[in-house]
Amino acid sequence: MVGRGVLMSCVIGLSLDSVLNCLTRKCQHLFLEKEFGYAKPYRICGLSFERNCPNMTSLSVIGFDLSDKNAYLLIKGLRKLKYLNLSRTKIITGLFLRDVSRDDCIDSLLETLILRDCNSLEERDVCLFLNSLLIGNFRFIRHIDVSNEAGLIYGNKPCSKPLFPLEKLNEERPGITFVAEFRTPPPAAAASSSSSSSSSSSSSSSSSSLGDSSSSSGTDDDED
């Protein structure tokens, strides 16, 4: 009901920032989704609402214009957050994944991170985040989803065949499910079934480090 109320307020003209800043300390679950085709942008600037909602455990902000800084502040500021869904956030590149892997966010309680259809998401930042999991960061995380239509960005263009350290992840963090399904790969990639979807119980031929992952995937993509 909280999410529905916020969406209704946005439609009648209040800024999203203003509505979020009115949330109370009792708010634990919030779901916001901007409808497809709704042209008015809702760029969230301050995100000071996190100070008003210290007990929030589940947050979905889908289809809004959050920046990487906004995403970073959400994870850093909402210390009890366990579920975060930022799907259809068009402008984030994944820089926030690098930032949260380097400071006190590594002890976050976050269990689920959904970044579906974030079309500017870069392969290198996702790989950096996965590599941080290998050394024990985000010890509570169990599910990550970076799926979209075309793939992650590598060298300013989509790459539908990124190579992630999935074998190492399966060995070091067997409880994690990582999903990266790219629904419209190039014909050659489709024939070889390289959707890069993995879970803790699945096997993968990718065991490369971040450096090897980036260079290999870029080369493969150029050849296609």
UniProtKB/TrEMBL annotation:
Matching SUPFAM superfamilies: RNI-like (SSF52047)
UniProt biased composition (Low complexity): 192-217
Renumbered residue ranges of the record's region Disordered: 186-224
Source domain of life: Eukaryota
Gene3D superfamilies listed in its UniProt record: Ribonuclease Inhibitor
InterPro entries: LRR_dom_sf (IPR032675)
UniProt protein name: F-box protein At4g02760-like
Organism: Camelina sativa (False flax)
Gene it is expressed from: LOC104737441
